[in-house]
Amino acid sequence: xxxxxxxxxGDASSTVGDAKTSSLPAPIYRHxxxxxxxxxxxxxxxxxxxxxxxxxxxxxxxxxxxxPQALFGNWTSTPVARSNMMPRNAQKKPCIVYGIQVKDDxxxxxxLDPINVASDATAQEFWxxxxxxxxxxxxxxxxxxxxxxxxxxxxxRYKIEPFFFSxxxxxxxxxxxxxxxxxxxxxxxxxxPFIQTTGKKNDTNITxxxxxxxxxxxxRKKTIDVLAPLxxxxxxxxxxxxxxxxxxxxxxxxxxxTYHPSLPGRTTAERLHQVMDRAGKSVYWNKIFKASRDPTxxxxxxxxxxxxxxxxxxxxLYMRIKxxxxxxxxxxLTHTADLNHGLHSLQxxxxxxxxxxxxxxxxxxxxxxTPNPAMESSNDKTNTExxxxxxxxxxxxxxxxxxxxCRMFISRLKNATELAFAxxxxxxxxATLRDSAAMKQISYLxxxxxxxxxxxxxxxMNVAEINPGSxxxxxxxxxxxxxxxxxxxxxxxxxxxxxxxxxxGGGVWRRAAWPAFxxxxxxxxxxxxxxxxxxxxxxxxxxxxxxxxMKSKNVV
Length: 556
Prior knowledge:
The protein is α+β, with helices and mostly antiparallel strands and 556 residues long. 50% of the residues lie in helices and 12% in strands. It has helices at residues 43-46, 77-82, 120-130, 148-158, 162-169, 217-220, 269-280, 283-291, 296-329, 336-368, 381-459, 474-495, 508-512, 514-537, 540-555; strands at residues 95-102, 115-117, 138-144, 174-181, 185-199, 230-231, 236-250, 254-259. Helix 3 runs parallel beside helix 4 (148-158), helix 9 (296-329) runs antiparallel to helix 10 (336-368) and helix 9 (296-329) packs parallel to helix 11.
């Protein structure tokens, strides 16, 4: 079987995203962890079908070819294809694996040479190295451009649940423990999306959702996509990155495997390899690695990389919000529509970032609350637990600081949005006042000419009392005017479905007879008031009070 025979990833297909907008897929949380009994199953399609895949056994050097169904029987070709674990696109770049080994005394060895897995020969060489027994505490493998053969080798060698690869490729936040064996070890997985900062000039292939003030009007009509990259102050772009880590904890030697999406601006395996190698030279963390044999501290150190990226991203966000507030303080709001869209877009992204920070907090708490079963019989178990609680507390404190900062950004944006609306309302009020002043001047001018116009109208009437010889009289003029006024008033009120004259919801004929109902109601109100007054007068107490008052007056 050829190495590249329909078994490799595409260059940009390490995520199931939109290539045109660099948007990521919406996470499908029900397929995130092994606790879900139906991985990537469509109930309407899969259950009625009775066919099943025929599993072929592969022994010898290529026994990894049958992964994942050879180890996990429910992962047939249907869920594997639906989860997009192994797409059939042609691979343009070879898979490169970077390695770090931590010795039993806590010291970091010299970084291993990268392994380029690009052919059948190099694949067999990589498989042989995976099966070598190394006397080290931790062996970390950082995988760039993960190909299907390398995926199958890693999954077969370390018995990795396919959920790690499916959740990583579909950007589904998850954390879980599996294969727990007390006194021997377990598997833990953390898939954590976080925010990364990159430059526009360095990554020209990155497109983002429009949030700048010079965006076109057609862009403002698009839906705000919080999963797409976001332009911020200057030449920086905030985009969602992925930290996918799977750890096999054992008594003798533990292994860490990281997955890295092949998208522009994201963290590469080479970058994380360099960062973790630098962490081994840190005095603080070197003391921790020497004080405890628990390999989970290496896992925890990887999570600190996400925190550094979050902190750097929030620095750029602070400058962006400060820039927007400066524009709002300017009296010239010529780009109000673009500014309004920018504020709402930034606030929508911040709300999404708040959920990502919550996932970060839960991931750190998961590491803290999932002790290593291989350390149960260790002599430094108590010291390891104290160290783990302390370091997780430090990291959780930093995550809490980021969460409070994110909420502060949301409050400032809300305040800025209210300021924008208040500024627009003030400008509208000022314009209304100017219009009112102009109308007042017109009213004054009308008042000046109103007496003259009335006098001209009266003397221009063709009535006999003013112009002798006319056929009409003032009495006829008054009669016609009164009738027309009454007819106009009746028609206007009858055509209104809602009015204080008649009850709402009345029919056409009832509204047409509104004068009769109106007079009837007024009469009833009048007579009702008179009858109540007479009843009060006829009360004995009232008369007694009146008679006693009259008697007192007579006595006086």
